[in-house]
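Worked example 2:
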Amino acid sequence: MNLRTSSFNRRHSLLALASLLGAAALPALAASPAQAPIRIALIESLSGPIANTGEAVHRNLVLATERVNARGGIKLAGGRAPLAIERYDSKGQIEEALAALRSAIDAGIRIVAQGNSSAVAGALIDAIAKHNERNPAQQVLFLNYSAVDPALTNERCSFWHFRFDAHADMRMAALMDVLKNDRQVASVYLIGQDYSFGQSVLREAKRQLSMRRPDVKIVGEELHPMARVKDFLPYATKIKASGAQAVITGNWGNDLTLLVKAAREVGYEGKFYTFYGNALGAPAAIGEAGVGQVLAVAEWFPNAPGQAGKAFYQAFRQRFPKPEDDYVHLRMQLMIEALAQALERAAAQGAGQGGSVVPAALAVARALEQADVSLAGQRLQMRAGDHQAQQPLMVAIMDRKGSRGVPFDVEGSGYGFRVVHQLNAEAASHAHSCRMVRP
């Protein structure tokens, strides 16, 4: 297994603070944290065909931990401790992810973060639950920032698992809010990755279409192997031949980029209703053909209304100025803020374990159930009943940089996303069927 460590780096903390708070705040950093770092194991694809997704997450978590460390780290009974991200390469495979989990636990890490695959997340949830039951002195907490199969906070919910992204049904409902009023669309093609998440997206698309746009005809439905298709031209050709006026897809990573690129090459002129069409090469791949045609749903966009969000985005770009590194999600920042809040609450209650001043995972989990954090104008609250984060959602449409509502482009492509629909946290929320088993 490829293991690389990204430890606490004071220079990066100073850079993050300078960009987010201004140079005047730097003198407050004179005293270094007194405790060893609180380590978070990032288990992601850091090599292989979807390595760009894992690296993009790593940048987000680096910025988030730098922000916490720049203000002094986590307040514990024996002083302050920084947060540190340690990288474990899952290569996009379940068995590799489980091996990484074992290595992280053996290394003494008690907080795990993962998200780029609901199949991997499901395996980690099960493995962590079994480990925690057998090893009460070494319990582990699982933070999920983007594995959005609804089952993970419904029938497969776990006390040890917390999801900070909206699940697939929530995202689909937001997209359908826009599609229901798009009377130019009378037929759609459904395509997705052939695993639990992709299957759930197509299933929910059909259900919501039948309820909210029963007049729309589904002219094609297809699942393809995840991260193994190198040529999407045959799929794009079928989409064009179907006469579909829109494509609905939950594809992510290279599977989305290659799909929209192939659609452009065959001259497909329909719309794309996507979960992730706003990043990782997709806007550049589709180019001018995507203006007014590609929609995406997220908890936040760089072009979201409000100055706080714009300032946050500009700070991120100062920290990661390369165009190809332009991938920022506020939920990942809020996740680390929620973790910091929970660690400090647990520490204040004297919840250390085995003589340690660092709170035990059980105490942190109980505090995390009450998480309520805000950043850059966005508020996130954790719902204790299913450990599903509650936050606003937005739908945005691709447009040229500099057009109304699009001050920022994506990855230097010249194209950005203009917000066309917003839901507050209450409107975005869905009921759950979780029956939480608590230790």
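The chain has two domains: 3-166+309-390, 169-298+392-428. The two ends are 32 Å apart (CA to CA).
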